[in-house]
Amino acid sequence: METSNATEEKKISSKTKKILLAMLAVLCVIYVAGFIYFQNHFLFGTKMSDQNIGGKTIDQVEALLSQSTNDYQLEITGRKNLKDAINGKDLDLQISLGDSIKNGMKDQNPFLWFIGAQGKNKELKADVTYDQTKLAKEIRQLDCFQKENVIAPENAKIILKDGKYTVKKEIYGTTVNEEKLTKKVKESLAKIHTSLDLKEEKCYVDPTLLQDDDRFEKGMKQAEKLADVTITYDFDYTTEKVDKSMIQKWIIFDKEQNAKLSYRRVLNYIETLAKKYDTYSTIRTVKDAAGNDHKIYFGSYGWKISQTKEAKALMKVIEAGKDVKREPIYMYKAICRKKGNIDWDDTYALVNIQSQSMVFIKDGKAVVSSSVVTGDVTKGHGTPTGAYAVMYKERNQTLTGQGYASPVSYWMPFTTNTGFHDANWRSSFGGNIYKGNGSHGCVNMPSGNAAALYSVIEPGTPVFVY
Alpha-carbon torsion 187, 192, 195, 200, what sign? Predict the structure, then answer.
């Protein structure tokens, strides 16, 4: 019985050996065949510019490259359904084996063909050449660079909508960075890639500030606080209010989204105030003692807001965060303000060049009247016409100028180097004396009348010359 079992086991062992030997023989044949085959074929897993060339000969790869040269086209896609292409023929594109592929065949180890391509032999590169100038031209002609297809990116930003601040979402747009695109195209050509997605390859110029940025919330809170104040301008007969709705339009945000007032916008508002309320150097209609109207053109009298100073002052007042009533900072002031931009009351002086006379009206009544001699028009010294105001008054002054020095007892200037004064060197006044023997521009008066005027007129009193 034992002998029978032993015999059976010997038969099985012999059969197993034969099978193993047969399998080994087959493997040897396969190995040798593979060794021979991969003497002139690339190992499995070998890639050339992302193309699998495992199992191909040099000639087959060369034929493949020749076909690629003839048919090559780089398809470009992007936002707004952009579809474009660069054709190899337009670039004089040439794709050849190159040393990388040739050496790749030499460097591979056919003895280890069964484990496939490894290490430096895993990916080989073809030689790609083209005309750089033609490529640059083709890139500039792509649809993505044509004006009608370019949408500029916009950062998210704080906007004012219906009296409330909100964040407007960013716009990605379609503006392409030409330098980045050129780089990616060249990389695609070098690897014989046939497609390029501008969005995936980050070729677009994208917004840098997005809607979910935490700085927006901080900026909006700052803006709400800054605008929560009311400034009232007092113009005597009326007022102007600067309230929240107005201030909100003046607020801008810096790069960090901090809220601040725009000097230019505040100044624009002050400029509108000045246009509305300034009376300096305007045309006026003034009544003489007899009730006749006279047009007074320009001069240097009237209200004039100092626009730059007031804009800066207003910004500080708003930033202080307190409701206030204020008067603008003026460069020039008049006696009063009345509706219709009337800036004088019932006390003023009139000088009539044609009649060579003056009158001082106080509280609506003529209190000083006099013949005068005004500036000599034949010598270019005519007394300037317009609206002015008495600057100051002084006794016993010597008036000097080119070729003269005249002592006077009563000096009441109303513009630069020009004013009322006595002229005791004259024996007569009025008439046509000012045409040939007039003053250097001042209003000459008899001494008694000059003294009378000096006693009643005050600095700031309007003087109308016509």
Answer: negative
* Measured torsion, CA atoms of residues 365, 371, 375, 377, in degrees rounded to the nearest 10: 110
The answer to whether residue 11 is domain-embedded is no
* Residues listed for the chain: 466
pLDDT value at residue 300: 95
Element holding 260 (H helix, E strand): strand 259-261
Query: Helix count (H) and strand count (E) of the chain?
Result: 11, 28
Task: List b or e across 240-267, with b for residues whose CB sees 16 or more CB atoms inside 10 angstroms.
Answer: bebeeebbbebbebeeebebbbeeeebb
The rounded Cα 216 to chain-centroid distance in angstroms is 19
Beta carbons of 6 and 13 less than 8 angstroms apart: no
The pLDDT, as a whole number, for residue 418 is 98
Decide if 372 contacts 355 (C-beta within 8 A). Answer: no
- pLDDT value at position 10? 62
Contact 389, 447 (CB under 8 A): no
On the 0-12 / 13-18 / 19+ scale of CB atoms within 10 A, 314 is buried
Q: How many domains does the chain have?
A: 3
Within a 10 A sphere around the Cβ of 269, how many other Cβ atoms? Answer: 19
Task: Judge if 179 and 241 occupy the same domain.
Answer: no
Give the model's pLDDT for residue 125: 76
Q: Whole-angstrom Cα distance, residue 18 to residue 24?
A: 10
**Which residues of the chain fall below pLDDT 50?**
1, 119-121
Per-residue CA distances from 223 to 27, 244, 249, 270 (Å): 82, 10, 10, 21
Cα distance between residue 339 and residue 138, in whole Å: 70
pTM greater than 0.85: no
Is residue 190 within 8 Å of residue 196, measured between CB atoms? no
Q: State which residues form the domain around 326.
A: 214-276+302-332
138 occurs within a structural domain: yes
In a shared domain, residues 191 and 56: yes
Q: By the 8 A CB rule, do 231 and 241 touch?
A: yes
pLDDT, position 120: 46
Task: Name residue 241's beta-bridge partners.
Answer: 232
Q: How far is CA 69 from CA 61, 223, 260, in A?
A: 12, 62, 60
Strands 462-465 and 123-124, how do they pair?
Answer: unpaired
Domain contains 36: yes
How high is the pLDDT of residue 123?
63
Q: C-alpha distances in angstroms, 295 versus 175, 257, 298?
A: 62, 54, 10
pLDDT given for residue 23 in this prediction: 86
Instruction: Please tell me what DSSP assigns to residue 119.
Output: G
For 215-232, letters b (16+ CB in 10 Å) and e give ebeebbebbeebbebebe
